[in-house]
Design brief:
Radius of gyration: 19 Å
Largest sheet: 7 strands, mixed
Number of helices: 8
Number of strands: 15
Shape: globular
Helix content: 10-25%
Strand content: 15-25%
Strand order of the largest sheet: 5-6-9-10-14-11-12
Structural class: alpha/beta
Length: about 325
């Protein structure tokens, strides 16, 4: 980020979750779990997919209710491979028989839950693959590239072959070059970044990694690999990366793992800060999977403070 741009940004807070698989928040007085009521307040809430376990309407209703209660102006949601009824072509061809014994869920009801008036009033915005720009009340204006697709996994939804490049030059919806994207929201991780399974395999996507290197977003949030939960900061100029440490006791107290990479430094009760992120040179990666490898909701939400561009009206 240039010195000129740095004067035209505003500190903005993100609460980030993924792979909830319909898990309800633990009670507020359960001090042994960070994923408990209420979710941390934020300007923007991001959900990186696997909202449900098997894409039942009742599961979506439960998650819409939970997100509606969250204290955030904007709640951006994408699907994941378990949200089988949000991938209509896959569901009609495979998912209905595989998961719902051919009885089927009403896909119109499913889509209405995420795009209807109730969701809109709650600040919920469901994104399919592509680019979208948002403006917040604090004057922040930012652009998101979102995709629910990930390399084929056990014949679940939103798949593509590992030899398919979905994100670069000749793709239908390629990820734009730097500096066009502020936030990258994908269900799956890029290769080699918070993507290691319990078996020791790195299963992220090589093509997505190549696209992220071009894009250099401020923040890349994802999930999918439950055991990859964590945060990593990459410097594209120097070619190095660092995992961000987490204080387990503080995390339980705060109901989140907190990272401050804004110019604002310390703020309020969460008074831990890191060096401000330099846009175009660095990216913060967050694997926000709430479930662990045993499908227990024991991982914490992430809370990230970062700087976003101001709209021209606010700049003036």
């Amino acid at each position: 980020m240039t010195s000129e741009e740095s004067t035209k940004t505003v500190k903005t807070r993100f609460c980030i979750i993924s792979d909830t698989h319909t898990a309800e928040l633990w009670p507020s007085d359960d001090q042994t779990h960070a994923y408990r009521r209420p979710l941390p307040s934020a300007d923007v809430l991001l959900h990186a997919g696997d909202i449900t376990t098997y894409g039942y309407i009742s599961e979506y209703e439960s998650m819409v209710e939970m997100l509606s209660e969250a204290d955030a102006e904007l709640k951006i949601v994408i699907a994941g491979n378990h949200d089988v009824t949000l991938d209509e072509p896959y569901y009609e061809k495979t998912g209905k028989k595989k998961f719902h014994r051919n009885l089927g869920e009403d896909l119109n009801v499913v889509k209405e839950l995420w795009t209807g008036e109730k969701a809109k009033k709650a600040g919920i915005v469901y994104l399919e693959e592509g680019v979208r720009t948002f403006t917040l009340r604090n004057g922040a204006r930012f652009t998101v590239y979102a995709t629910p697709y990930q390399p084929e996994f056990c014949n679940f939804a939103f798949p593509y072959g590992r030899d398919e490049d979905r994100f670069n030059e000749h793709a239908k919806n390629p990820i734009p070059d730097c500096p066009k994207i502020d936030i990258l929201l994908t269900h799956g991780p890029p290769a080699g970044i918070l993507d290691r399974t319990s078996r020791g395999d790195d299963v992220g996507c090589e093509h997505l990694l190549r696209a992220v290197r071009r894009c250099r977003p401020r923040l890349h949030s994802f999930g999918h690999i439950h055991e990859g939960w964590g945060a990593q900061r990459n410097n594209w100029i120097h070619g190095n990366s660092a995992s961000l440490p987490v204080d387990q006791q503080q995390m339980l107290k705060d109901r989140c793992a907190y990272v401050n990479i804004s110019q604002g430094g310390k703020d309020g009760p969460l008074e831990r800060s890191n060096k401000p992120l330099v846009f175009g040179e660095e990216t913060l990666f967050i694997n926000a999977a709430i479930m662990d490898v045993n499908y227990e909701p024991v991982n914490a939400p992430w809370l990230v403070d970062l700087d976003l561009p101001l709209t021209e009206q606010v700049e003036g």
